[in-house]
Amino acid sequence: MSLQIETDVPLRALNTFGVDVMARRLVRVRSARDVRLVVDHPELGRAPKFILGGGSNLLLTRDVDPVVVKVEISGLRVLEDDARSTLIEVGAGEPWHGVVEWALDQGHAGLENLARIPGTAGAAPVQNIGAYGLELSDRLESVDVVDFVTGRSATLPAAHCRLGYRDSVFKRELAGKSVITSIRLRLPKPWTPVTGYADVERWLQRQNLTDPSPREVFDAVCAIRRSKLPDPATVGNVGSFFKNPVVNRTIRNEILEEHPDIVSYPLEDGTYKLAAAWMIAACGWKGQSLGRAGVHEQQALVLVNRGGANGADILNLAQAVQDSVEQKFGLRLEPEPVIV
Ligand code: EPU
Fold first, then answer.
1. Residues with Cβ within 6 A of ligand 1?
2. What pTM was estimated for this model as a whole?
């Protein structure tokens, strides 16, 4: 089958902020072979490319000139299952939450803390998704990619993906250079719940669940996310818009002197993660709007489309928030989504 090149495609339904821009050209790839067809294509082969998954970690500020490669590769299967772990392989186009649910339904626990994260499996390693004490890097075994220049396939072990806090090689050197076609996840046995995160602990305690099952942890995470984070199906958003800043002990102590209530978490390497949501709320932004964009009422780290916002509206608000936080705390927050 040859590739279908769609032209002047509205992207509004393909990004969870719901920003109304166009792609000049868009191709849908349903297999690694389709990606190679793109590479070998006389027109598309050399053109700059933009990879689109679920569009849930993306702020579009203008029409997209590069060829949009929409990844729709499906597939869910168990590759290995023994006494020590289960290895599953997932097509990059699978919706992430569906992967978590499927694994749980099959009796393969270990992803439940990452329930209800929007986006596709292929996008998960790009920003090393994480929530409630678990990061993809804790479960990722390897990633299959196809190189956009040579068309060659390769398997990158997780250790080569340079996964960091909302960061990876795919946001850096490999951005636009290769496309993720599938990922492999290793779920260790025996399963042990990850319940150290305050919100999860509190929720389980309230239900008197001292020895929770995977399903109960899953339900807890789903309930917490539903109560705090807006559903992109009804309110345009991309989850957290900023990263939590990581600072050394001296800076943390300086900030703490002036703002004794600030929420911060010690990291293993002696640095501290500061709660950006707390700082944004302390600047009075929680629930506020600027034009057609706003700061979410329940989670100040989330910017929302109040209706008809374009990229500039959202960027204006983001900059105003960054300015306020910088004035009050002396730190400039770093945006988390990819901005195009
Ligand atoms: N807080 C406030 N005001 C708020 C929200 C939170 O003061 O409006 C304080 C809370 O007191 C809490 C602290 O900030 O102690 C942290 O809040 P929360 O647990 O909601 O997590 P977060 O640090 O704001 C991060 C991730 C989320 C992830 C949650 C849970 C980033 C950028 N965000 O948010 O990920 O779901 O932890 O693990 O690290 C995403 O990346 O899109 C995302 C939603």
1. 131-132, 199, 228-229, 239-240, 243-244, 263, 275, 277-278, 281, 286, 299-301, 336
2. 0.95
